Automatic annotation (TrEMBL):
Source taxonomy: Bacteria, Pseudomonadati, Pseudomonadota, Alphaproteobacteria, Hyphomicrobiales
Keywords, alphabetical: Lyase, Pyridoxal phosphate
Superkingdom of source: Bacteria
Family to which the UniProt record says this protein belongs: Belongs to the Orn/Lys/Arg decarboxylase class-II family.
EC number of this enzyme: 4.1.1.17
Pathway participation: Amine and polyamine biosynthesis; putrescine biosynthesis via L-ornithine pathway; putrescine from L-ornithine: step 1/1
Name of the protein in question: ornithine decarboxylase
Length: 406
């Protein structure tokens, strides 16, 4: 992910950013001084993501401090850059992986197989076998069929069953694709036990960018019911995987990791009393989102008629270049410009490709400075998670998003 080849050339072409010029309000910008300094001297011609490892380190410590009794399994899908994985492996993180490729990346970064969970409920049997051969022994399921695959390809492994949540309050909900109803989770875990697997626990994901700190409560109530039903059949579960969902600050403030920790601990006490099982959290967005900033450029500003409808601002990055989470305008990134402070005007923002779906914000117009001009640089903040991995390989001939880790 780290490529420096165009740096000298682009430095010669682009004037440096003036420190502080891109700040909207004191204290709200997520562009760290290190990212600013980096962009001031070394800039490729196209859009690029710059990730500051110091921010990720701080996030890791904040999670550990807020939820000291929960094991952290970083969701690799959020940002699998080798430098990020290596940092987190060194800090003692475990890893939630969605594929054999992600498992290999986590191992490469220094994690042992014992610190890896194969958390995708949809796996090919040969991938289960491959993960098992690599030493992974913890697998997610949400169906009888998946249990059968694991019993054949990873005999004796530990499994946890994912239950559905309603995703209410999440800006990027994940269910119904993953999980089953709690009663079915009971059946699935009994079946796993019968097939010689270790029925180990229950998991859920409250939905990504969950801004309600109490969203874990009802899912933990469901988890407890599954524990009780299985105990009646002599199967004693040991673990609750409470997933991700911890938010990144985009345009609005979000509660702190500590506030989530307190609320989750309260819910665990309410439902499990003095017998709180082992718990896991799988932060993705909350671990890396605020560590990244994308530098992009204004390619065109135009209107669709002479009447005073909104101006269209076309950037050199769009939905297919890494900003896929603007789908349905779900995630609204902070966009900083060198002209912040000037009079603002609501605009449509679109990407550069010839696909009409490549519009970032249109239903809800986005305020940008009236003085914004073709060729201006913009900084798109909060883009450390779910960007590089969504970037298409040369759709319309645009290069995939470059990434620098500093
Ligand atoms: N765990 C699992 C199983 C997931 O599927 C995801 C995201 O899709 C995560 C954790 C990370 O979620 P978030 O980025 O909301 O923290």
């Amino acid at each position: 992910s780290t490529g420096w080849f165009q740096c000298e050339v682009s430095y010669a072409l682009c004037p440096p950013v003036h420190a502080g010029a891109l700040e909207l309000e004191e204290g709200t910008t997520m562009t760290t001084q290190r990212i600013r300094d980096f962009l001031a001297t070394r800039r490729p011609d196209g859009p690029c993501l710059v990730v500051d490892l110091d921010v990720i380190r701080e996030n890791f410590h904040a999670f550990r401090h807020a939820m000291p009794d929960s094991a952290i399994y970083y969701a690799v899908k959020a940002n699998p850059a080798p430098e990020v994985l290596k940092l987190l492996a060194g800090l003692g993180s475990n890893f939630d992986c969605a594929s054999v490729a992600e498992i290999e990346m986590a191992l490469e970064a220094g994690a042992t197989a014992a610190r890896i969970s194969y958390g995708n409920t949809i796996k090919k049997e040969r991938d289960v076998a491959r993960a098992h051969a690599l030493g992974v022994s913890l697998f997610a399921v949400d169906s009888h069929e998946e249990v059968e695959k694991i019993s054949r390809a990873a005999p004796g492994a530990r499994v946890f069953c994912r239950v559905l949540t309603d995703g209410e309050g999440a800006e990027w909900p994940l269910s119904r694709k993953f999980g089953c109803v709690p009663q079915m989770a009971v059946d699935v875990l009994v079946y796993a036990h019968q097939l010689g697997l270790q029925s180990y626990g229950v998991s859920f994901h409250v939905g990504s960018q969950m801004t309600k700190v109490d969203a874990w409560d009802s899912a933990l109530a469901d988890a407890k019911r599954v524990f009780v039903q299985l105990a009646k059949q002599g199967i004693h579960l040991q673990m609750v995987n409470m997933g991700g969902g911890f938010p990144t600050r985009y345009l609005r403030d979000v509660p702190s990791a500590e506030a989530y920790g307190k609320s989750i601990y309260q819910a665990l006490r309410t439902h499990f009393g003095n017998q709180i099982p082992q718990t896991i959290i799988e932060p993705g967005r909350g671990m890396v989102g605020n560590a990244g900033v994308i530098k992009a450029e204004v390619v065109l500003i135009s209107k669709k008629s002479d009447n005073d409808d909104a101006r269209w601002v076309f950037l050199d990055i769009g939905k297919f270049g890494g900003l896929a989470e603007t789908m349905d305008e779900a995630i609204r990134y902070p966009i900083r410009t060198e002209r912040d402070g000037d009079e603002m005007e609501p605009c449509v923002i679109a990407g550069p490709t010839c696909d009409s779906a490549d519009v970032l914000y249109e239903k809800n117009l986005y305020p940008l400075p009236l003085s914004l001009t073709i060729g201006d640089e913009v900084l798109i903040e909060g883009t450390g998670a779910y960007t590089t991995t969504y970037s298409a390989v040369a759709f319309n001939g645009f290069e995939p998003l470059k990434a620098y880790v500093i």
